[in-house]
Design a protein that fits this description.
By secondary structure, this protein is an alpha+beta fold. It has two domains: 66 residues, Orthogonal Bundle (Arc Repressor Mutant, subunit A), CATH 1.10.10; 108 residues, Trna Endonuclease, Chain: A, domain 1 (3-Layer(aba) Sandwich), CATH 3.40.1350. The protein is 25% helix and 24% strand. It is built from four helices and nine strands; from the N terminus they run αβααββαββββββ. It has a six-stranded mixed sheet. It has a three-stranded antiparallel sheet with strand order 1-3-2. A hairpin with a 2-residue loop joins strand 5 and strand 6. The N and C termini lie far apart (55 Å).
Length: 174
């Protein structure tokens, strides 16, 4: 059976990023919720994807499991999703999670945990790229030594008990 464009996008996103939250896929599709849910239901009925974790996550098969850093990076990506092409984002090179193009500018999303402040040293800084460094709390940003010539801003992803988080962006004085 031939897949519709939106169905192809869902399959590609899940193959690139692993299992994602259902709410993330619905937002990535940029369709009314009922339409997005129908697309997901059709793919499930065609056995092209699996509903995981009591319907909370969706993956390509029952062995798919979400990567927490990737889930966090996708929440940040969703802040820009209306301004980028559905195929204008993909996995980045470690330690970054996602690369995307917005208005002809490349961005990399890097998710860091508390004990990973040194990972930024692994990035081959490209002065033409902008980096979004996601940290658990903004006070951590002051402890991070940002590589020279790295054009970056910081972000936090705060759930505060909600299904979808609030994403906040910050600049930090050097």
């Amino acid at each position: 059976m031939l897949l519709l464009e939106d169905e192809k996008n869902v399959i590609k996103w899940l193959s690139q990023y692993g299992a994602l939250r259902k709410t993330q896929l619905i937002r990535m599709l940029q369709k009314p919720k009922s339409t997005a849910e129908k697309i997901i239901r059709n793919l499930k009925n065609d056995l092209r994807l699996e509903i995981l974790g009591d319907g909370y996550y969706i993956g390509l098969d029952s062995m798919s499991w979400p990567d927490q850093k990737m889930l966090t990076a996708v929440w940040v990506l969703l802040e820009f999703v209306e301004k980028i092409d559905p195929m204008g984002h993909y996995p980045a090179t470690y330690p970054s999670q996602i690369f995307f193009l917005k208005e002809n500018v490349g961005y990399e999303i890097v998710v860091l945990y508390e004990d990973e402040t040194n990972l930024l040293r692994l990035i081959q800084v490209d002065e033409d790229l902008k980096y979004i460094v996601v940290v658990p709390h903004i006070s951590m940003a002051k402890k991070i030594k940002v590589p020279k010539n790295m054009n970056c801003l910081f972000a936090t992803v705060d759930f505060n008990g909600a299904e979808e988080p609030n994403v906040h962006f910050y600049t930090v004085e050097k």
